[in-house]
Amino acid sequence: MSPSEEAVSMPRRVASPWASTRRMLCVLAVAFLATATAQAFLAASTTEWWPGVLAVTFTAAAGWCLATALTSADSR
Question: pTM for the whole thing?
């Protein structure tokens, strides 16, 4: 095989990447929700505005992770 053919050849496929990817997205979602909960309690106990913004941001990130984990496997 010539060097130009090696550069064009396709890499081997991973057997099933979605199981580990979905698991990692679910773990990330749980971590984001735990952090959002901590930030929400911090926002409730202080007069600062930024813990509330972080809580909303972490909740949105958790929602994105869960939505991606649940819908990406359906499209394959």
Answer: 0.71
